[in-house]
Write a structure and sequence with these properties.
By secondary structure, the protein is of the alpha/beta class. It is built from twelve helices and ten strands.
Length: 321
Amino acid sequence: MKTKIFSVLSTAVVVGFAASNAFATECIAPANPGGGWDFTCRSIGKILYDIGEVDAPVQVTNMAGAGGGLAFSTVVNKRGSDNDLIVAASSATTTRLAQNAYGGATADQVRFVGAIGADPGVIVVAADSPFQSLNDLVEAAVADPNSVAFAGGSAVGGFDHLKPLQVLKAGGLDDITKVRYIGVDGGADAITQTVGGFTQAMSGDMSEVVGFIKAGEVRVLAVLTEERVPGFEDIPTAREQGYDVVAVNWRGLYVPKDISDADFEAWGARLQAVADSDAWAEQMAANGLAPFTKVGGDFQSWIDGVIAQTEDMSRQIGVIQ
């Protein structure tokens, strides 16, 4: 991306610009402009500079390809020790790594710095559904998996598919291959399937269902967060209903593997400073994100557990061997 930008400038200007170190930090968004990864780079990058955590504006490079795989490969193979590089990541990153979607790449080839916000996962039913609680739904599905079908906006094996599987497994369903899941083109279509009675429940993200909640078309049986979501305090978590499941589409960063421990810890501290800022609170409120802060070694350990769980469930449903 730098080459394309600088190609319109003279050689002398390029040299002078580089020497001034005007862009000391680069954030790679592994997708085209717009969407979650681009939002992560641009919002976090701006706040890093605005609050003085970096000395110069952060350059955002959009590097679309292979669902994040091109950026991952570039970092691993070409920029493995670049301590001025950060990369936007989310639940999609770890799901694809767990399912070997990046051509043999593994999560331990980079270092995950942290997550500072998330789009909460939800389990939703139609407003007139007989299921009044998550317990009602889980008990019915465990007793007869064929009696409950879920719709979601991801393909089979994707994150929306894995959310109800985690809940049902926590509820005692041993054979999750029996769970019926219909993958459609986005959350709105998944809600339509459920409201229309074609499926009994919908698995998605909070941002996808807010309008339908306000219209009275759906009820959210559970939000898959550690705590209730601000602004939706009447919706219970799965945890408080007895299902120890946290499934959120987190927004965060990874960095190259071979940077020093000191540099890794410094990036963790910078990201924590963003999380603690009023500017980030405003960004979360404006973009429908819930608080979800895990930074540094604690986040890396959490990522390891998420990937192991995703690998196990993906094997059970036949997504990977």
